[in-house]
Design brief:
The chain is α/β, with parallel strands linked by helices. The chain has nine helices and five strands. It has a single domain, classed as 3-Layer(aba) Sandwich (Rossmann fold). It has helices at about 15-25, 35-45, 55-65, 80-90, 90-110, 115-120, 135-150, 155-170, 195-205, and strands at about 5-10, 30-35, 110-115, 125-130, 185. Helix 1 packs across helix 9 and helix 3 runs parallel beside helix 5. The mean pLDDT is about 95. The structure holds cytidine-5'-monophosphate (C5P). Cytidine-5'-monophosphate binds next to helix 2, helix 4 and helix 8. Cytidine-5'-monophosphate binds near residues 38, 84 and 165. GO terms for molecular function: kinase activity.
């Protein structure tokens, strides 16, 4: 009974987005990339010339968020990554984005990916996946993704940015990155996108 919510959480570049999008398509459920919300808030703060750690500016940006903000093409890249992670540590920003995420999931069920879907946004989600991979593998993937987009990147730098963002996300007091107690861990270090999808779908189908 009720709607089906599948939570897909995990650290940066673990393959959550690709997996969640494919699971949603396979299950016929809407998909929400919740990281995009924090990215769009971070971008608005940067555009306003403010510091993403500024709680007043960040909360105002979160409250002013519009659907068009999520369509912007400049939400990915080192600046946007760190700005998103900075605004995401501010409790008022998280509170401002909570209802939207819950309403989205409750309307027709959904697959949502993020950091705190299984712990905070939908603690009673039907299925919770926590997707991980080694930091080396995640950095390699992000590096290749940046290269494919024609963005100049340095593997060492990408690695250190991922480490910094993981630490910032895992150590914040509010909604830190961590697996829910009832989450199923999926390590994609040695899996390509196809194999990760097959493994994820098997876990989900088993629990629906
Ligand atoms: O998933 P993605 O890497 O796009 O998320 C960008 C940032 O947004 C993360 O580093 C994290 O700080 C924040 N985030 C969050 N909670 C979520 C989704 C993303 O704090 N549910």
């Amino acid at each position: 009974t009720g709607t089906t919510v599948v939570a897909v959480d995990g650290p940066a570049a673990a393959g959550k987005g690709t997996l969640a999008r494919r699971l949603a398509a396979a299950l016929g459920l809407p998909y929400l990339d919740t990281g995009l919300l924090y990215r769009a808030v971070g971008r608005r703060v940067l555009d306003a010339g403010a510091d993403p750690r500024d709680a007043v500016a960040a909360e105002a940006a979160a409250r002013a968020l519009t659907p068009a903000d999520l369509e912007r093409g400049d939400l990915r890249g080192p600046m946007a990554d760190m700005a998103a992670s900075a605004v995401a540590a501010i409790p008022a920003v998280r509170a401002a984005l909570l209802d939207f995420q819950r309403d989205f999931g409750r309307a027709h069920g959904a697959v949502l990916d993020g950091r705190d879907i299984g712990t905070v946004v939908f603690p009673d989600a039907r299925v919770k996946l926590f997707v991980t991979a080694s930091v080396e593998e995640r950095a390699r993937r992000r590096f290749l993704e940046l290269q494919a987009r024609g963005v100049a990147a340095d593997l060492m730098q990408v690695t250190s940015e991922i480490r910094d963002r993981d630490a910032q996300d895992a150590n914040r007091p509010v909604a830190p990155l961590r697996p829910a107690e009832d989450a199923i861990l999926l390590d994609t270090s040695t899996l390509d996108a196809e194999a990760a999808f097959a493994a994820g779908l098997a876990i989900v189908k088993d629990r629906l």
